[in-house]
């Protein structure tokens, strides 16, 4: 149990066959793009591919950029319905991330954008390569945790987690196959 957090992890949320199917279909169906950010006047490509799907009018700002939601794909709606078997929260958008290899990652951050409101529920699904999901407390430096996110797993973060904790998927020089992550969110 982590302090100031509420995190549930379901390593076998999807069985191997389902997880393989979703990995392949998401890679081919999602409209992946590599966003760029401006840092101190220089343009950088973010080290992953992404796409935001959402109900009409639910735009979302991530990696410093606002994205209009793409219309839901049937496969994403199907996965959203499955999450309902363990979590009663409503979701109206999903951020898809694709890590092509170990050189892709996401740096320390919290999912605390204002449009998610206070204490958001984030449901995060993983398909493909196992990656290390690290958490660190914002103030108490002795508090850290890491979870190896397995193929077909579901991680739910809720309550005050985003307020007190940061998370990242660190880049690695080790060989890594592709991984797709879906984080379902409710944009107010
Ligand atoms: O890929 C992951 O598991 C984490 C993704 C993430 O942190 C995010 O989308 O905010």
Structure description:
The mean pLDDT is 96. With 188 residues, the chain is mainly beta. The strands form four sheets. It has a six-stranded antiparallel β-sheet. It has helices at residues 16-29, 74-83, 161-164, and strands spanning 6-10, 36-39, 42-45, 49-54, 60-62, 65-67, 93-99, 106-109, 122-128, 131-137, 144-149, 153-158, 165-169, 179-185. 15% of the residues lie in helices and 39% in strands. The chain has a single domain (6-185), classed as Alpha-ketoglutarate-dependent dioxygenase AlkB-like (Jelly Rolls).
Features:
binds 2-oxoglutaric acid, 188 residues, Jelly Rolls, single chain, globular, mainly beta, four-stranded antiparallel beta sheet, 14 strands, 3 helices, six-stranded antiparallel beta sheet
Mean pLDDT over all positions: 96
CATH topology: Jelly Rolls
User: What integer value in Å does the Rg equal?
Assistant: 16 Å
The percentage helix is 10-25%
Assembly annotation:
single chain
Give the total of beta strands. 14
Unreliable sequence segments = none
**Name of the CATH architecture:** Sandwich
Structural class: mainly beta
Indicate how many domains the architecture comprises: 1
Bound molecules: 2-oxoglutaric acid
Strand order of the largest sheet: 1-12-9-14-7-4
Order of helices and strands: EHEEEEEHEEEEEEHEE
For the largest beta-sheet, the strand count, sense and barrel status come to: 6 strands, antiparallel
Distance between the termini: 29 Å
Q: Give the helix tally.
A: 3
Beta-strand proportion: 35-45%
CATH superfamily: Alpha-ketoglutarate-dependent dioxygenase AlkB-like
Which CATH first-tier class would you pick? Mainly Beta
Shape call: globular
């Amino acid at each position: 149990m982590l302090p100031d957090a509420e995190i549930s992890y379901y390593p076998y949320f999807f069985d191997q066959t389902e997880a393989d199917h979703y990995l392949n279909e998401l890679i081919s169906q999602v409209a992946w793009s590599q966003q760029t950010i401006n840092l101190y006047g220089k343009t950088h490509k973010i080290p992953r591919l992404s796409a935001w799907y959402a109900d009409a009018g639910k735009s979302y700002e991530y990696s410093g950029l606002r994205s209009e939601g793409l219309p839901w794909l049937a496969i994403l709606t199907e996965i959203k319905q499955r999450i309902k078997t363990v979590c009663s929260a409503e979701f109206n958008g999903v951020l898809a991330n694709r890590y092509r290899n170990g050189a892709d990652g996401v740096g320390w951050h919290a999912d605390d954008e204002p449009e998610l409101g206070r204490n958001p529920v984030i449901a995060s699904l993983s398909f493909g390569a196992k990656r290390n999901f690290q958490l660190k407390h914002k103030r108490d430096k002795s508090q850290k945790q890491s979870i190896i996110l397995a193929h077909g797993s579901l991680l739910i973060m809720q309550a005050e987690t985003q307020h007190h904790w940061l998370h990242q998927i660190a880049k690695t020089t080790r060989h890594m196959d592709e991984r797709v992550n879906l984080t379902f969110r409710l944009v107010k």
